[in-house]
Amino acid sequence: MLNSSRKGVLxxxxxxxxxxxxxxxxxxxxxxxxxxxxxxxxYANPGDNIVFRNNSDASHTVNGPEGSWTSGExxxxxxxxxxxxxxxxxxxxxxxxxGTQAEGEIIFAEAPSASE
Length: 116
Known about the structure:
It is built from 1 helix and 9 strands; from the N terminus they run H-E-E-E-E-E-E-E-E-E. By secondary structure, the protein is an alpha+beta fold. It has one domain (25-107): Immunoglobulin-like. The strands form 2 sheets. Strands 3-9-8-5-6 form a 5-stranded mixed sheet, with no helix packed on it. Strands 2-1-4-7 form a 4-stranded mixed sheet, with no helix packed on it. A hairpin with a 4-residue loop joins strand 8 and strand 9. Mean pLDDT is 83; it is low at 5-21.
């Protein structure tokens, strides 16, 4: 009896650790500064989030190609969170209220190590 209880506990623990590992998402912060994105290239995977933080003095809008998604107006010091999916386009552009245009790219892979 005790042996089957241990097996049940182990099975539940293994299932929970699998679910917890699969549910973990990374947040990648992209700063909007002086009409550009920093970093302009983001290494992300489906399930991750890109958090656009507007550190400029002007409002800014970030868009996917052909209107696939839009942040709407992001005010100064405000943020917008984009959840990355398998079908998220790999590029984004933005336009500040001051007319500055910015471009960025999403690479669906792990970031290269510093030694590469």
